[in-house]
Design brief:
The protein has 2 domains: about 30-155, no CATH class; about 160-270. It is mainly α. Helix 3 (about 55-80) packs antiparallel against helix 4, helix 6 (about 135-155) runs antiparallel to helix 7 and helix 7 (about 160-185) packs parallel to helix 10 (about 225-240). It is about 80% helix and about 0% strand.
């Protein structure tokens, strides 16, 4: 009797743990890189434009909106919308009132609605064809993510030069990850992607260096982001050339990119 009872007691926590993990997997997508694309541009916008109370509502709407779009595209891909009804209802119920609160606080954010609608249409088109890993689909997702920098700046009252710099830095970095991460994981044996990644980062570094040269007459501007941005993109070019083919595990690749994201936010904070 004691053996049976002990076995039942010991198995119950494991069963409960597995059930909880299953619920998390059901309502949280296995897209680890997406969290950086959600958080970094939003934080860059706050660093560049400052915090307003509506930014808290925007954070909730931004997160819930991403989760809603993920499960919406899963339903489009699977042709089984009923399978994701619970997720769609939950995240729509969270996102809609928070988004309405942001619009009520700063109606000018609606200027970005057509852009987001067009980019989401691109995502839906690729989801319907089950080609979510297509390069253009990834680019559309990056644009959606980085536009939130300008949304945060609009909530603050105006899109300043600092916000534009933050937007461009985020856009340049995350577009680069589209190529680079493919060379490390899904396209690691594809020399074409390695060339694209290397050349993209050469152009990004050249743009950062050109901005530094253009800002040279202004010591204040030169002393802020210019040298650090150029240094960051020099490193990003080096890692795009040297690391592919080294057999790094996806976890190691992700940790390196987390450090790069932290460096990017530090550069934005210098403004």
């Amino acid at each position: 009797m004691s053996t049976v009872e002990g076995t039942g007691t010991a198995s119950r926590p494991r069963t409960t743990s597995r059930a909880a993990a299953g619920r998390r997997r059901r309502f949280l997508p296995p897209q680890h890189g997406a969290w950086a694309m959600l958080a970094v541009p939003y934080l860059a916008g706050l660093l560049a434009a400052g915090y307003r109370w509506a930014d808290a509502a925007l954070a909730g709407a931004w997160l819930a909106g991403y989760l809603l779009s993920y499960y919406l595209f899963q339903s489009v891909k699977s042709r089984r919308p009923g399978r994701y009804r619970a997720q769609l209802l939950l995240y729509a119920a969270v996102a809609a009132p928070l988004a309405a609160l942001v619009v009520a606080a700063r109606p000018q954010v609606l200027w970005y609605a057509p852009g987001y609608a067009a980019l989401l249409a691109v995502n839906a088109w690729y989801a319907a064809r089950r080609r979510e890993r297509a390069l253009l689909n990834d680019v559309a997702s990056v644009l959606q993510s980085c536009l939130v920098v300008l949304v945060v700046a609009t909530i603050a009252g105006t899109v300043t030069a600092a916000a534009l710099v933050a937007f461009l830095l985020c856009l340049a970095y995350f577009l680069g990850t589209v190529f680079y991460v493919k060379t490390m994981i899904r396209e690691r044996g594809n020399p074409r992607y390695r060339r694209w990644s290397a050349w993209y980062h050469v152009l990004a570094l050249a743009a950062a260096a050109a901005q530094l040269v253009a800002a040279a007459p202004s010591p204040r501007s030169t002393a802020s982001t210019g040298p650090w941005a150029a240094a960051l993109f020099a490193w990003l070019l080096a890692r795009a050339v040297v690391l592919p083919g080294r057999g790094l595990a996806p976890k190691r690749v992700g940790l390196i990119e987390m450090a790069n994201c932290a460096a990017l936010l530090a550069i934005v904070a210098l403004r």
